[in-house]
Amino acid sequence: MINVSLWNTVLEIIKTKTTKQAYDTWFSIIKPLTYDSSTSVLTIEVPNKFSKDWIEKSHKALILESIKMIENKDVAINIVVSETKQEPVLLETGNTLPAREKKFTASTINGLPLDPKLIFDNFIVGDSNRFAHGACVAVSEAPAKSYNPVFIYGGVGLGKTHLLHAIGNAIRNSDPSLKIAYLTSEQFLNEMVAAITSGKINDFRNKFRYVDLLMIDDIQFLQGKEAMQEEFFHTFNVLYSANRQILATSDSKPQELKIEERLKSRFEMGLIADIGSPSIELRVAILKKKAEIEKVYLSDEICLYISNMEQHDIRKLGGYFTKVIAFSSITKAKITLDLVKECLKDVTPAALERKITIEDIKEAVVKYYKLKPSDMVTKKRTQPAAFARQVAMYLTRELTDMSLPEIGQNFGGRDHSTVIHAYDTIAAKIQTDLVLSQELKEIQELAKQI
Ligand code: ADP
Ligand code: MG
C-alpha cells in the first residue's frame, strides 16, 4: 500500500506546478494503489483509458518529477484503469499529414462569436460530464494532437455549447494565431445556401476549410439535409487530412443520427463522449458557482431548494437562479427561502405537470421501497413501512390538493395530526439529507409514470 501522506505531498507539489483546471481534471482523479519498493514501481489507478492515455502522454513526467523531489529517487509508474465499461473508439492521428502553415496572425473567429463567460473555470465538473470535460480540456491544450475528431452528445442544457466556447476561449488565449470557427449546423446551412444563391460557394468553402479548429454545434440539424451533409463531409475531409481539430455536438450519438453512413463513420473514428443529467450535488455546485460569479450569497438550503426544481436542464436551473436574483434586487429584499418560494411559485417542476393522485404516490412508494401495498394502511408502526408511510404522506400533501384529514383517512384512518407530524419530519430531513431529497424526486418521477 502506498503511503497516503506521501501521495498527498506529491499532489501538493503538482498543484503548484500546474493549472487548477489541469489539476482537477487529471490529477485529482488519480488513486494511488501500491508502491513496490524492491522494483520502485508506483501503481496508480484512473477511471478510464482516456485518462490513462492522456496522463501517460502529458502528465507522467510531472508526477515523476514531484515524487523525485520528495523521495530523491527515480520511480516508474504503472497506470491501471479501474472501469470495465466499453471505451469509445480512439484514433491516433498519424504524423504523415502536411505540417500546418500558420497563415493567420490575428485571432479570428469564423461563424459565431465566442462568449467570454463560457470558460473552463466556470464549468463545474461532476461524474455526468467528467469525460466530456476531460476530452475538451485535452483538445484545448493540444488541438489536433490528442483526439480528433471529438464528438460530444447529450440532452439540452447539459453544457455542450459551454464546452465548445470554453475550448475556443482557451485556445484563443494560449495561441491567438490559431484560426477558430465556431457555429451551429443551422448557421452552416444558412451560409451555405446564401453562398450557393449568390454564386460564392468558393468563399464559403475557404471560410471553413482553412481553419485550425472547426466546432459545429448541434449537428443533429444535419439530419435529412443531404446537400449539407455532402458539403460538410468534404469540409471534414479537408480539415482532417490537414490535421486540423474538428469538434461536433449533438443531442444523440452518431450511430443514432439519421445522416449518411460515411459521415457517421468519420465521427465514430474519433473520440465520442456523452454528457448525462447532473446529480443533485452537481446542480448545487453549479448554483453555488453562479452565485459566486454574481457575488450573491445563497445558503445551502436555498441552493438545494432551487436545485430540486429541475433535474436535467442546467439552463432552466440558471433561469430560476436569475429570476430569484432579479426578484431580490428589484424588491431590495434579502434572499431567503420564503422569497425563493414566492418567486418560483409559478414554476411547475416537470414532475408535477401531470396531476398525480394519492394512489400513484402510494404505488410509487411501495415500489421504490419494495414494500407491500398493505404497508401503506396498516396500523403497525414497524420500520421501514412507518418511514415509507411518512414519505407517502409528505408527497401527498406536496403534490395533491387533498386536505390533512383526507390524507390521514387514506393512510389507514389516521388522525390529521399524524399527517402534520409526518410532513414536518420529512420536510426537516430533506433540508439536510441530499440522499433522501433525491429519493423523493425519484419517487415523484415514478409516481408520474404510473
Ligand atoms: P447545451 O449546449 O448542452 O444545450 P449549454 O452549454 O448551453 O447546454 O448549457 C446551458 C447552461 O448551463 C449554460 O448557461 C451553461 O453555462 C450552464 N452549464 C451547463 N453545464 C454546466 C456546468 N457543468 N457548470 C456550469 N454551468 C453549466
Ligand atoms: Mg447547445
Strand tally, please? Answer: 9
| Global shape | globular
Unreliable segments (pLDDT under 50, ≥5 consecutive)? Answer: 85-108
Distance between the termini: 50 Å
> Can you count the helices?
18
Described by strand count, sense and barrel closure, the largest sheet is: 6 strands, parallel
Q: Helices and strands: which structural class? A: alpha/beta
Overall pLDDT level: 87
Helical content band: 40-55%
Helix and strand sequence: HHEEHEEHEHEHHEHEHEHHHHHHHHH
Hetero groups in this structure are: adenosine-5'-diphosphate, magnesium ion
Radius of gyration, rounded? 27 Å
Order the strands across the largest sheet as they lie in space: 4-6-7-8-5-9
Proportion of beta-strand residues: 5-15%
Walkthrough of the structure:
This protein is an alpha/beta fold and 450 residues long. It contains 18 helices and nine strands. The chain has a six-stranded parallel sheet, with helices on both faces. A three-stranded mixed sheet has the order 1-2-3, with helices on one face. A hairpin with a 4-residue loop joins strand 1 and strand 2. Helix 16 (404-410) crosses helix 17. The site of magnesium ion has 4 residues, from helix 5.
